[in-house]
Description:
Strand content: 15-25%
Distance between the termini: 21 Å
Oligomer: single chain
Amino acid sequence: KQLAFRISVSESWMRWATPKWVADAGAKGYDFLPGKGVRADGPFWEPDFDDPVFLAKLDRFLGAMAARYDGNPEVAFVDVGSLGVWGEGHTWSSTLRPITAATVKRHIDLHKKHFRKTLLAANDDMGGSDARGRSEAIDYAAAQGLTLRDDSILVQAGRNAYFHAAWADAFWPKAPVILESEHYGGSKARGCWQDGSLYLKAVEEYHASYVSIHWWPHEFLEETRPLVRQINQRLGYRLQLTEAGWPKAIRLGERLPVRSAWRNAGVAP
């Protein structure tokens, strides 16, 4: 098995996702109330993602983390999680302060400075998009060799189950794309999950190689086993032997020629 990491600096359930000593060292930040933005009496704290003190501390942290994990074959990927609430690159459930493409690029560069061997992942919500649906930040991530991660598939239902499958075209031919579903119980309670088939459709359209189980695993498997089986049969690459042949007889000492034909039944190269 392999592990993957995301180090978040802003959370909607704990004040000091970024350690308090970083703020005490002079890093600028904002108290916030989830979904309401910056509030003087906000119970949670989010750093200014461009603050030089914060960036210096983050730089040292990533250096120490990379010294242990960069190139480790037991690590599948590391998210660029130092932006936005939950590390998803947005602030709609924290300060509501916009994150610019320039800021995203700065954080990508900081991660690439230290993680030179291990795959890095950019979240699809980083930096937003323009009127044409393009994202300068995501284009930069693709150019820098990162992969794409789309969190919270099926937060909404129907056409709004996910939004950025087209962006994956710049990533999946050369890197494994990552998907994460909404909390299964919450999505089901809102009527968004339905039969879960839109998660499988997302796997197809994003050409995904990883999907995460966002719930108690045993309960999720018990209730969605047919869907899990379908996803497993398409996720990533799946090499299947379709034909094999060899001569009925050969002479002693001769080579045995074996002919085989294969196909990839998965969605990824």
